[in-house]
User: What shape does this take?
Amino acid sequence: MNDGVYKVNFTAVDDDGARISMDLVVTILNTAPVPRFTISPVHGNTSTIFTFNSTSQDTDGIITNYTWDLGDGNVSYGTETVSHQYTVPGNYTVILRIWDDDNEMMEFKLYLKVDKVPEPPPSPDTEPEIPHDTNRSKDRNEENELALELLIFGIIIMIVIIVIIVIFLFVVRKKRAGGEGHFHSSEDDLPGMKRTEIKPDQSRAGGSELEIEWDDEY
Assistant: This one.
């Protein structure tokens, strides 16, 4: 029987046929609806589509509205069954609110854990990834930089040596060019040789005569 106010007529008759009547007013209160629902499957991940199915009842009337709060900001209205997929792993509180024909609301909640999608196992043909050793790479880079610095230093040393040789040859040639008119050597210059003089030869144009005397005792 639905809730409400009812007028009841009570009549009593005895064995002599005497009759008595009485009117009674009866108020029947509303019975709140009972919200319930199930989750299938009860556990899953972000690739799982969950189904929420209401098993709610209203013993003295009908359920007029369903509202689903799925816990991630999504809300569904008006249906006994809802399907939903969560995109972020975590723990969610799912709440079902129902209203009966007397506009009385009741709610029921369940808790759901959603995991992330597991990574697929490596295939047999896939080589395991070798962890990158940053320290070894840093040491290798330092060795390369040191080798480059040594190479540059060696090149600079070679250039300096070549410059010194060129300057030396230039000075020697200049000294020789400046002493062509007269060359003097003493006996101490070279063993086995006596003093030598180079004098211009007047009989030859632009020529000179070189006289060398050797010491036979050497």
